[in-house]
Amino acid sequence: MSSKILRGRVLTFVDEPQGADDHSAYRYFEDGAVAIDGGKIVAVGDFNEALKLALPKAEVMDHRPHLIMPGFIDTHIHYPQMQVVGSYAKDLLEWLNTYTFVEEQRFADEAHAARIASVFFDELVRYGTTTAAVYCTVHPQSAEAFFTEADRRKLRMIAGKVMMDRNAPEALLDTPQSSYEDTKHLMEKWNGVGRLNVAITPRFALTSTPEQLEMCQDLARLFPDAYIQTHVNESLGEIAFARELFPNLPDYVGVYEHYGLLGPKTLLGHCIHMQEREIEILYETGSVAVFCPTSNLFIGSGLFDRQRMRDANVRIAVATDIGGGTSYSMLRTLDEGYKVLQLRGQRLSPLESFYMMTLGNARALSLEHTIGTLEAGADADVVVLDARAVPAMAVKMERVETLSEELFLLQTCGDDRVVVETYVAGEAAKAGLSGVA
């Protein structure tokens, strides 16, 4: 890994902004620099001779006048659903049965899984995403393909083999015992290798029997520091079905509570239709509610209530949820998140949005000292943004006067074209990308 200094306008958050004008929540350098060596950040500050002395032989990559930020983080995404994006259905359950479960059966083929994994990482890098929490399929080979490619690219990724033993096509069912053994094997082989972590991944309560959820609980006891990821309270039809399947438990979140699957490293996708007791349990366990705005709007599931979660001190993350979600871009995701909250009568400032897709999501993953920040010792995952890359945006930039206005324009109108470069562990990763492999 070569040493280098990235020069440009540098922005990194140090805390969650408390409103649109909270300048104490971030550090900004108009002519700044990020010094990188061995895949790590060694110094951040104004570009001057003193900073250059940190790495006297480093190549200076001059990105002026572009904005340099930590790489974006996506906390809930399904890599096998790349070819499901944009599929028409009336609701979640129809979408799953008509498209998703059909598509996921193709991942029994190792070559197909490997190809899609490669294209998937290309797309994340193209949009500036350097870390994601990812669902594979029920097939162990889908996870093997994912981790093999992620390790080759030196990406920091969290992923798991989906566990499901009912209410899905026969070709997508495992058993309680096989799901336990497959996940345990992945943990022993991949967890902690390079920049990878394995997550215990029951798809959702609808597709796991009590026996399988008990096996998930056994895995959580065996690997107490493991991530756990699943879905909850996404749609009303799903919730009604969960009540039928678990009539003796108080609510949907109560299913995961009963089986010991809640905690500070539990990521719960959606959390739209929440009971008060469920919100209290999320707070008490430190579990994370993952906001997936493009998916919730596309499938018509409902509007996430961010303020209600914040009032209850529940930890919140934000995610694309490809392929119910409709964009790989965290910028587009927060644009739709802004609109969801507008409909809720809630404000989401540009500073809060960019905090959420960087340090905020890093905190949700308990990785705030490793990613989501431009600080000495952190991984050198960096994105370079150009708010003038799109002609219409360049015209608007003629009238932009503040950093917040620029951020809001990037969020509202930006796409992969505004991502000048994505650095993964200090190495430029976007420049060499081509089309679909």
Q: What is the helix fraction of residues, given as a range?
A: 25-40%
Give the overall pLDDT as a whole number. Answer: 96
The separation of the N and C termini measures 26 Å
How many beta-strand segments?
16
Q: Any idea what the radius of gyration is? A: 21 Å
Percent of sequence in beta strands: 15-25%
Broad structural category: alpha/beta
Assembly state = single chain
Give a quick account of the main beta sheet: strands, pairing sense, barrel closure: 9 strands, parallel
Describe the structure.
- By secondary structure, this protein is of the alpha/beta class.
- Helices cover 37% and strands 23% of the residues.
- It contains 15 helices and 16 strands.
- Strands 5, 6, 7, 8, 9, 10, 11, 12 and 13 form a nine-stranded parallel sheet that branches. A seven-stranded mixed sheet has the order 3-2-1-4-14-15-16.
- α12 crosses α15 and α13 crosses α15.
- The protein is globular.
- It starts with a strand and ends in a 9-residue tail after the last strand.
Q: How would you summarize this macromolecular structure in one to three sentences?
A:
The protein starts with a strand and ends in a 9-residue tail after the last strand. The protein is an alpha/beta fold and 437 residues long.
What's the structural blueprint in terms of helices and strands?
Blueprint: E1 4-13, E2 26-37, E3 40-46, H1 49-52, E4 59-70, E5 72-78, H2 92-104, H3 110-126, E6 129-135, H4 140-152, E7 156-160, E8 162-163, H5 176-190, E9 196-202, H6 210-222, E10 227-232, H7 236-245, H8 252-258, E11 266-270, H9 276-285, E12 288-291, H10 293-299, H11 306-311, E13 315-318, H12 330-343, H13 350-364, E14 382-385, H14 391-397, H15 403-413, E15 419-424, E16 427-428
Parallel strand pairs: 1-4, 5-6, 6-7, 7-9, 8-9, 9-10, 10-11, 11-12, 12-13
Antiparallel strand pairs: 1-2, 2-3, 4-14, 14-15, 15-16
Helix pairs in contact: 3-4, 4-5, 5-6, 12-15, 13-15
